[in-house]
Specification:
Order of helices and strands: HHEEEEEEHHEEEEHHEE
Shape: globular
Number of strands: 12
Structural class: alpha+beta
Distance between the termini: 73 Å
Helix content: 25-40%
Length: about 240
């Protein structure tokens, strides 16, 4: 039976995605791969005031519907004026914080002083961007006070893009917390951003935001850590959050 050129093209087009090998039809080929990333969820948030900065984070570490730990801190002290709060993959967060602490020690040994927050902000951005092809699966808030005594927060994505803000949140509960901060803190949502001056008001806003997130987000809960950074240094408080 002879087949015209037109018939051949029509038949080829109809079967171009069909596997004709009998062996592969019986046992389809399977692609094997390895995904190095997981997300351990959790939430961190921060607000920068005129002469202070407050940072909060929960202590739950999850994997899917399993709680791995109820008492793991997401916030690490880098200097007497700067902390980093990280949500995302726990293993990458630990590795990233170790790298930052090592680079800060190197800076201290070279220049005989600790770096200001704007220097650490660039350092963190470069560290994340340097791993952009195999990123740290982390979402960071760098918080503290700058050389002028003003509160400062830098928010990052996983590959090092960052911006200075008056308030921010990262992690699984961020979608619940950011609208509250937008409503209570004058930041990107107003024409003239203004840093708050009342520490008690900021503390209450952050505490209420985290409790609200814990009521609605299964990955946020167990414990609430609050860091206050001002000219006198860093103060730490801890209180319970919803545990179920």
């Amino acid at each position: 039976l002879q087949m015209s050129k037109m018939d051949f093209h029509a038949k080829l087009a109809g079967n171009i995605f069909k596997i004709d090998n009998d062996d592969t039809e019986k046992a389809p080929a399977m692609e094997r791969g390895f995904n190095p990333y997981v997300t351990n969820e959790g939430t961190v948030a921060a607000v920068a005031g005129k002469d202070f900065c407050k940072v909060v984070g929960d202590t739950r570490c999850s994997l899917g519907y399993t709680i791995l730990s109820r008492d793991l801190s997401k916030i690490t002290k880098l200097t007497d004026k700067v902390v980093v709060a990280t949500a995302g993959m726990r293993a990458d967060a630990i590795a990233l914080h170790k790298v930052l602490l090592t680079r800060i020690k190197t800076y201290k040994a070279k220049f005989h002083k600790y770096p200001d927050i704007d220097v650490i902000a660039r350092m963190l951005g470069n560290t994340l961007y340097g791993r952009r092809f195999f990123p740290y699966y982390t979402f960071n808030l760098l918080c503290g006070i700058n050389s002028e005594g003003e509160g400062a927060i830098y928010g990052y994505d996983a590959v090092g893009s960052y911006d200075r803000v008056n308030c921010g949140a990262m992690g699984s509960g961020s979608e619940l917390i950011v609208p509250i901060l937008d409503n209570q803190i004058k930041d990107h949502n107003v024409l003239e951003p203004e840093a708050p001056s009342d520490t008690e008001v900021v503390e209450n806003v952050l505490r209420d935001s985290m409790h609200a997130a814990a009521e609605r987000d299964i990955y946020t809960g167990d414990g609430l850590e609050m860091f206050t950074i001002d000219k006198d240094g860093i103060r730490f408080e801890k209180e319970p959050l919803r545990r179920d």
